[in-house]
Structure prediction request, 206 residues.
Amino acid sequence: MSLAQPARPVWPQTKYYTPASSPVYLAKDVAVLGWEVLAKGFMTGKWDRSDGARAQQMQQQIETDPSVAAELGPAGERAAEWRELQLTTAYCIEDNFLRRERAQELAEKKGLSLAQIALKYVASQPFNGFVLVGTTSAKHFGENSIGGSTNKLTPQEVRWLETGEMSEGGTSSLDGIGEAPEAVINSPPGGKRKRDQSPEELVPMF
Prediction:
């Protein structure tokens, strides 16, 4: 589940979230665990449009040359290349690059990182959702804590990230959005935890 919507299932025999699923999750009160929220790095700036073009060229070779298709697979010498191809084919599409550019614009306006906006997008869905993150870096984990557990995005901001429009038939500009208020983490009794706290203080608050 990510702001970056896959063009197809990323991995064979898997499914992925689309906004069309939201009413079902909301109506049935389904708890949704958001996995690959950062789209394997796409929503941190990994890959560009040239990577998408190369993926499309490789897919064409696979379709026209059986020997290329036979060499690529999840096991064997070209397993890493196969994995990269699955990811770039699924995520490196124009709609996702536009969503990422809008997310970067919103991040700059709110004083957050691109990754934090991507995490906020998932945390701001109307259903009962949870943001799953994984990293080997304590610094990144602290940043992810801020993105996943502070004030949510507004429905208008979520819509703008998805479509480029603030409302149906409305403006496509962020000019009407003010600076974000100081983010507040879930508060313990007797006080508030604010965005300027250290990652070590934020981690236990999930």
Q: What stands out?
A: Strands lie at 32-34, 129-131, 184-185, 193-194. The CA atoms of residues 109 and 178 lie 8 Å apart.
